[in-house]
Write a sequence for this structure.
């Protein structure tokens, strides 16, 4: 019996390592090519470079305008994360605590948003009517609208697990609705709030389609668009392209590595009910 379990564990380990190579090999190739010469990078091999060319990063940052692009990505990610998580947490609290036909219908409406794809033509029309087309705040609001259904679903499941007796005790102590939400619910929501922040940040940082259609000025381009334009200019210089890709993924990779345990715990906490 023990030998069988050991064999199963060994097989699982080998399978997981093989699957991980699907991700690790391309990442290793990008990292190595980023510090190679143009000729060495063109071979797309996993060999170490004869000489490390760290000047590739300086050239990418200067010619690819990566500093400005990262500022734009940071603005879009931070503002959309703040709007989405604040609105979703407050909305989910109301929908969870007031179980009526109206609130149930609103909750189902949000769930439909998880499945419905974005239609770009009406979206562009709406942004044009609100004078938000080609503006950073317009893209931030659009990111928030796209991520709101998932966050409402996540928060709703978590709030449903919080005993109503806490609300009743807060009301007896004289708390109003806002005081009860910010003083009682928000501290309890920390695991799921952290999950929402991390997932929303990575989605906003990595998104390519929305900036492509909604922003037409290069000074407003986020990192994804900057890398795309840089690739179009230096398509034959894979060392520079790899350096640009590496620069663009470092921030979100750091965020994920430090926050992956919170993503798992928050998803589990928010999936108990709903």
């Amino acid at each position: 019996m023990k030998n069988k379990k050991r064999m199963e564990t060994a097989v699982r380990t080998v399978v997981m390592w093989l699957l991980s190579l699907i991700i690790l090999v391309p990442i290793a190739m990008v990292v190595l090519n980023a510090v190679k010469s143009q000729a060495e990078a063109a071979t797309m091999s996993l060999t170490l470079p004869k000489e490390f060319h760290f000047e590739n990063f300086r050239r990418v940052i200067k010619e690819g305008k990566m500093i400005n692009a990262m500022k734009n990505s940071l603005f879009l990610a931070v503002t959309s994360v703040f709007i989405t998580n604040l609105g979703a947490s407050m909305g989910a609290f109301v929908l969870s605590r007031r179980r009526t036909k109206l609130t149930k219908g609103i909750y189902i409406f949000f769930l439909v948003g998880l499945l419905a794809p974005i239609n770009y033509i009406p979206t562009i029309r709406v942004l044009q009517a609100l004078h938000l087309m080609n503006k950073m705040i317009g893209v931030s609001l659009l990111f928030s609208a796209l991520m709101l259904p998932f966050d409402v679903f996540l928060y709703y499941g978590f709030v449903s697990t919080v005993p109503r007796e806490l609300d009743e005790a807060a009301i007896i102590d004289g708390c109003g609705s806002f005081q009860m939400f910010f003083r009682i619910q928000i501290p309890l929501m920390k695991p799921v709030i952290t999950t929402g922040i991390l997932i929303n940040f990575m989605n906003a940082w990595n998104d390519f389609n929305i900036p492509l259609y909604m922003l037409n000025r290069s000074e407003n381009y986020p990192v994804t668009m900057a890398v795309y334009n840089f690739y179009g200019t230096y398509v034959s210089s894979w060392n520079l392209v790899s350096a640009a890709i590496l620069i663009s993924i470092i921030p979100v990779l750091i965020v994920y590595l430090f926050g992956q345990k919170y993503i798992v715990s928050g998803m589990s906490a928010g999936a108990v009910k709903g």
Observations:
- The CA atoms of residues 92 and 121 lie 29 Å apart.
- The radius of gyration is 23 Å.
